[in-house]
Amino acid sequence: MDLLCDTIMVEEILPRMHPISILRLGAASRRYNALVRDPDFAAGYWQRAGIFFQRSSWPAARPPLFLTGDDDDEEEEDDWPEPATEYMFGEDLGFLPGPSAAEKAYLRSVGSADNAGNVVNIMHSAAGLLLCSRGITLPMHFYVCNPVTCQWVALPELPWIPHQWRSGLLTVDTDEDAATASSNLKRFQVVLFNHPMHWLKPGGCIDLKLFSSDTGQWKVMQLQPPIRIEEPPYSWSPILVQSGTAYWIMLKAKDRAVAYNSVNHSVRFVGLPRRLADAKMNRIIGERHGGGLRYAHANSLVFEVWDLQTKSDGNIRWKLVHRVGVTDILEWNPEAVGFLVESSIIKPVGFHPTDDDVVFLGMPGAVAAYSIEYGTMSIQCTHHSSVSYEYPNVVIFHKLQSIVVVHGVFSRDIDMNGPPIPV
């Protein structure tokens, strides 16, 4: 009987409990402690995979959507469908603090919606943590949080106009040797970019604001690109990858991108495969699982995927790894036809972090996971945008580990006698 009860507990009850409740349960008795520390249970519970879809926040703030299926909300056509999942806690980011009384008063004075100041945007993710922003008034608020444990830390406020700083990048120190054996502290860094339109001005540069959890303070850094940037990128927001690099694909220069590396704070140009005709707004660059760049683009006729590979002679070249006609994709996936009535253009918006076979594709009204091997598509979420260039990036992270915020750094340990969210 005890064995049956333990089986029900492990398979049905514990997976639905909040991580903090799991830790408290383990402290209640030796029996429960053995259950929550069982290697098989821990492997499945404490490391989870998840993907967030962040819609563009212009002209109105839009909340992120956790991709778990198409749970459409028919009653509120102007809103995103509510996320429904058994695989993530805190996916709505509702645990982050809301606007202050002063912010609410300002929003009321300008006629904003009651919930406008509550919308949180995901800016980037790394090592199971999210960099988020909230607020349209001075100052803008930035947070680093763990959606599994609902733990967060607020970064120091910055006294400047927030619309100039819409993009940010998060890197987390995953070197175990750099952390103490007792607390396993995780250091992190946040980088904010100025708007690319400032790069184009005479004497313009890439102006960075850097926050380090070691110092708890912001600092300023200015970088001059190796070649003057004389044209804007096709998107003001960079494409951010897990390794800590930001890419801006150029609009007029068809075959190159500006790359900023947050590890050594370097800026360089990256050559890209020759762009398809009429595909200037339908391009994405990212990383393959295990490393290496991947690039995809599409127009109304064809969809291509390219990998950057090192040849036997040591030279690095782009290799075409997948090419398929859009009509073939629609023939194999009739459920997608309804989303492409107004336009037959599909837009690659991201790559799966652990499965190189999957590319996420945006369509008017939906986002789908496309299999390179089988040519099949699975609708991940629906939305209400009909303009192709409005599709945002897919913010991707994996191995969402139970890392708790402690005094601006992250630790796997939790003080059960203290508050659940120390700030």
Question: What topology emerges from the helices and strands here?
Answer:
Elements: H1 2-13, H2 19-26, H3 30-36, H4 39-45, E1 50-53, E2 65-66, H5 101-109, E3 120-126, E4 129-134, E5 141-146, E6 151-154, E7 167-172, E8 188-193, E9 206-212, E10 217-223, E11 239-240, E12 245-249, E13 256-261, E14 266-271, E15 283-287, E16 293-298, E17 302-310, E18 316-325, H6 326-332, E19 347-351, E20 358-363, E21 366-371, E22 377-382, E23 394-397, E24 404-406, E25 409-411
Antiparallel strand pairs: 1-2, 1-23, 3-4, 4-5, 5-6, 7-8, 8-9, 9-10, 11-12, 12-13, 13-14, 15-16, 16-17, 17-18, 19-20, 20-21, 21-22, 24-25
Structural write-up:
- It comes from Eragrostis curvula.
- Pfam families: b-prop_At3g26010-like (PF24750).
- It is a single chain.
- This protein is mainly β.
- It has 2 domains: 226 residues, no CATH class; 119 residues, no CATH class.
- 12% of the residues lie in helices and 32% in strands.
- The protein has 6 helices and 25 strands.
- Strands 3-4-5-6 form a 4-stranded antiparallel beta sheet, with no helix packed on it. Strands 7-8-9-10 form a 4-stranded antiparallel beta sheet, with no helix packed on it. The protein has a 4-stranded antiparallel beta sheet with strand order 11-12-13-14, with no helix packed on it.
- Helix 2 crosses helix 3.
- The chain starts with a helix and ends in a 12-residue tail after the last strand.
